[in-house]
Design brief:
Largest sheet: 4 strands, parallel
Number of helices: 5
Distance between the termini: 11 Å
Radius of gyration: 14 Å
Number of domains: 1
Order of helices and strands: EEHEHHHEH
Shape: globular
Strand order of the largest sheet: 1-4-2-3
Number of strands: 4
Low-confidence stretches: none
Length: about 120
């Protein structure tokens, strides 16, 4: 078995740090109020974010969370562009999935982290 996957998640509104490793924005939309320089991103992988239709349907309604997770995992299972690049970066070391949502427990970065931790490749 390869090295342990080192993935953390962080809101865009939290300050970047040296411990973040490779910082990857996993939102389809750019977080409000930020310049590209201020986020200190290594990658912006829009394609690994939930589809626009799924994001709009979910609307960050906690009651839809279980179904959102199921639908988003199905999208991830289809192998969107950027997923292989994300896995490559993860093989190199720590990756921080950066997201803009206010809810730190119910967002796509949580689902994506769990997906990456539980799938091989």
């Amino acid at each position: 078995m390869g090295r342990q996957k080192d993935i953390q998640i962080k809101r865009a509104y939290e300050l970047p740090s040296e411990e973040d490793g490779c910082r990857v924005l996993v939102d389809r939309l750019w977080p409000r109020g930020f310049t590209k320089a201020s986020l200190k991103l290594d990658l912006w992988l829009k394609a690994v974010a939930p589809s626009t239709a799924l994001r709009q349907w979910f609307g960050h309604e906690v009651t839809k969370w279980p179904e959102f997770q199921r639908r988003y995992r199905k999208e991830l299972d289809a192998g969107p562009d950027g997923l292989d690049l994300l896995r490559e970066r993860l093989a190199e070391g720590r990756v921080t999935l950066v997201f803009g949502a206010k809810d730190e427990s119910h967002n796509q970065a949580v689902v994506l982290r769990d997906f990456l931790l539980t799938t091989d490749a």
